[in-house]
Amino acid sequence: MPKTVIFAEKPSQAKAYAEAFSVGEKTKTYIQLKPDDTFPHGATITWGVGHLVELKEPHDYHKEWKKWKLDQLPIVPERFLEKVSKGKWEQFQEVKRLFQQADVLVNAADVDREGSNIFYSILRLTGVKGKPIQRLWINSLEKDEVRKGFRHLESNEKDLRLFDEAKARQISDWMVGINASRLFTLLLQKKGFGSYLSIGRVQSPTVYLIYQRHREIENFKPEPFYQIEGQFKSQAGTYKGMAEIKEKDKAKVQALLDKHGVKEKETEFGIVQRVDKKTKHQKSPKLHSLSTLQGVANKRWKYPPSKVLKTMQSLYEKRLVSYPRTDCNYITESEFGYLVNNLDAYQKTLNVSFTPASLKPNKRYVNSSQVQEHYAIIPTKTVPTEKKLSGLSREEQNLYNEILSTTLAMFHKDYVYEETTILTSVKGLSFKTTGKRDVDNGWKELFPKPAKPKQGQDKPLPNVGQGEQVDAQVEVKESMTKPPKPYTEGDLITMMKTCGKHMDDEADVEILKEVEGLGTEATRSSIIETIKAQKYIEVRKNTVSVTNKGIMLCEAIEGTLLSSPSMTAKWESYLKKIGSGEGSKQVFTKQTVQFIEKLIQDTPGSIEKVHIKSTEEKKKWNEPIAKCPSCQTGSIIDRYKFYACSNYKEGCSVTFPKKLAGKTLTQNMIKTLCQKKRTRVLKGFKGKKPFSTALVLDEDYKIKFDFAKKE
């Protein structure tokens, strides 16, 4: 009797799969499915907890690689190996046991290259070989879609190529991160830098693009420019117009007035030369990819991109939306079919009612040739009940309604408006006025109106006729050029996706267009969170600024490929070739080693131009925090990824984690634990639900929760 073992990426995904079938047994580490048409002999679902395994650290290969030294670079292991991630040994052992017992394995992790990486990295570490492997490839966690997906499992041929692609990316990122971070940090510390730099293939050029905007704003010098404005008074009302001149030299503007004999601020007679009215149609926006949704949500609600992804993942696991990590804005006719069938129910959910303009697929939205692995984000067939909707968080409700509105807009009428252009002549000097009037709101009625319309926006123009005489007052208007605006967090997603537009090299522009810029749809928000955590940028009131530490990083990498999006573009282009079977993981990693060797050779000379600035970090990362509670002679110091006793060489093994149950442990918390053996009640820990607890230090100098202590 063949035994099928299904691997899900996380418990919530496993639960969603299981709910599509009949469950026999549930444990902490797996779910047993009863036999049915899909699995005649039943099946077992087990799962990872994010990444169960990770690449080994440098010191796991050689102890001497733990200490940061220039003469050890480049750090390149002969063979890259994985290890079980900290705190995940128990689940790994269960997965290993189930893999060993299986006759058939099914990779049901997320349908992208990282899902392939997670499954095969775990499989490799378990040592299980030679078993048939199939791949689940679905875009929705709805029961019907899950059952259909498991009935039509795919071969793992494409999955293995994606694993090669992901592993090449992971290994090369590891090499660049380890070597470049140590190289630049150690060289800058020689100049008096008191902290460390984290450098990465994608995060560093992202910071550099923000730094470039910072320099543009900082170096911007406002300059005056001059225009001619006319104020006109007709029988039907007043309106303004501008002459078609915009000059830095005021004398040129004055010369034009003199040429036509027009005097400033004196009442003149104007003649309406022409009135043009055009009816214009605007189609509804394209269906959402993750990045377009992140942009809209940041603009409308100031949500950080990471919050949008997290919220969309939650809606996906609740089976309300399709797969969220998509870069596609199209659906196929299959999805269009079920959207048509659910149209009335969706309208009821959104509390709107309209007659569809068309029930035929439109290529602006429905185009199978544009859909690869994933289609656009749309609502699933599951229409939520009022109870389910009311149980959603505010963020979930907002984003679900945005997805629903954008999808329904595809069936609605066009937004129709009338654009009016008035040309008014004052002594032969022509002034242009444009205005807009709504004719039919169409799809726009599905979306919330802007809270504050821009001043003077869409003000209706008076009804004037050709040949009509109007009173006119003309004046020279002085304005100042304005600097570029700082990025918002939503702008960062767009900037990362479209950064190729600003490259000089045409080949790089094409590559960046093909791979869609820096990062991927699934990783951009985490890259932004990383550079925030590294204190390279700050976000205040949704405005992004670069810090002193970020400026130093950019000065250090300026002129190298680490500052240029073209490097990551070329990487992504070749990685895609590995995924399609046209490229080689070995060639890619060899080229990465060559890049690192050149970086080590060139950087010492280029680092001289960097100005060491105060990074406002109160303590150096290796300064004493508190006396060691165990040996009493050493000090607890920040060891970058954890806290530890300075007497570790003498055998004191006391260490404390930087993070505990999703909460960052600050130096002050560690100091309190070392001195008083307990903290006050702290908020922000994460389990199945967020929780608060005090921390205590036990007899073995391990940190424990103390739920008994009250606020």
UniProtKB/TrEMBL annotation:
Enzyme class, first EC level, given as a word: isomerase
Keywords associated with the record: DNA-binding, Isomerase, Magnesium, Metal-binding, Topoisomerase
Region of interest: Disordered: 442-465
GO molecular function annotations of the record: DNA binding; DNA topoisomerase type I (single strand cut, ATP-independent) activity; metal ion binding
Domain Topo IA-type catalytic: 159-600
Protein's UniProt keywords contain Nucleotidyltransferase: no
InterPro entries: Topo_IA (IPR000380), Topo_IA_2 (IPR003601), Topo_IA_AS (IPR023406), Topo_IA_cen (IPR013497), Topo_IA_cen_sub1 (IPR013824), Topo_IA_cen_sub2 (IPR013825), Topo_IA_cen_sub3 (IPR013826), Topo_IA_core_domain (IPR023405)
One of the Pfam families matching this protein, by short name: Toprim
Enzymatic reactions: ATP-independent breakage of single-stranded DNA, followed by passage and rejoining
Keyword rRNA processing attributed: no
Designated name of the protein: DNA topoisomerase
